[in-house]
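tool=predict chain=A
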Amino acid sequence: MPPADVAGWVLVGLGAASFAAAVVTGAWALNLMGTLDQQCPERQCPPPWHSAVDQFDALRTASTVTLAASGALLLSGVAIVLLAPDEPDPRAASAPLHLGAAAVLRLGRRGAERAPGRAAGAWAAIRVGADGLQVGGAF
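tool=predict ok
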């Protein structure tokens, strides 16, 4: 199996795992939201429930980030598996393979504090190519 196919299938597996994590954290967030709706009339929670609100916000963000990452990983993996050549061209051994996909997700919170020159929120970037997988981000 060519190395590009191996990389593609690894990305598909990572995307599937990320999708499972998104489903679990999303379900957990929805369950917590139902509890908060009961305990916090008119969206005004008493102090004992403030930590549950923070947990809900964290789960909601985690679910969104992992869902976006799963889509990027799955699409990148499938693209590599379908588009990578079966055998490398010996004439192009030193040329980079221009296969890959990139996804950038930017999340922000309304009213979030930010340092001068920095955008509010979190971001993640994934790039897949012949030179490997590059992942970066900030939270």
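The CA atoms of residues 26 and 63 lie 5 Å apart. Residues 3-39 form the longest helix (37 residues).
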